[in-house]
Amino acid sequence: MAKVKETTGIVGLEVVPNAREVLIGLYTKTLDEIKSVPEDEGYRKAVESFTTHRLKVCQEEQDWEAIEKRVGCGQVEELIEEAQDELKLIGHLNEWKPWDIPDDYECEVIENNAPVPKHVPLHRPGPLPEEFYKTLEAVNTNTLKDVISSTPKEDGAIP
């Protein structure tokens, strides 16, 4: 007999006694709804992949603990919330159709010369080391093996 879950330990997140059945329903609906997104869209491929996996786990396992362990993404109640959110997002994407933006579309850039607050870091990384560019060039010209084999062993850096 399966262990009864008494609490999620998360404030505001109640235990769902029939979580497995709820998840199977949500994942099945998600796989149906995502078909409205074009097949070549990365979002569709990702959603189909992880949803198919999670649905399979829910179909194979009877116990909520086993589902949580195999999926590895939180409690079943959290998975239910995620699946509900995914369905909402699919609905929004079907309304917005971001895949229908023409190739020649130019986004308007709004310049704002307001100063950056002092508590906000500027996140301007320094230049990459010269070795990076040499390695990149070697990769692009298919000469990486030659460059590595000619590199002195004690140095380790590509000349």
**What's the total number of strands?**
0
| Termini gap | 65 Å
The topology string of helices and strands comes to: HHHHHH
What spatial form do the alpha-carbon principal axes imply? Answer: extended
- Given helix and strand content, the structural type is mainly alpha
Helix content: 40-55%
Largest sheet: none
Total helical segments: 6
Strand content: under 5%
Spans of 5+ residues with little confidence (pLDDT < 50)?
none
Radius of gyration: 25 Å
What is the average per-residue confidence, as pLDDT, rounded to a whole number? 89
Describe the fold and architecture.
The protein has six helices and no strands. It has helices spanning 19-33, 42-60, 64-71, 76-96, 130-140, 144-149. It starts with 18 loop residues before the first helix and ends in a 10-residue tail after the last helix. The mean pLDDT is 89.
What's the structural blueprint in terms of helices and strands?
Blueprint: H1 19-33, H2 42-60, H3 64-71, H4 76-96, H5 130-140, H6 144-149
Helix pairs in contact: 1-2, 1-4
Relevant terms:
about 160 residues, about 0% strand
Write a concise synopsis of the structure shown:
This protein is an all-alpha fold and 159 residues long. Helix content is 50%, strand content 0%.
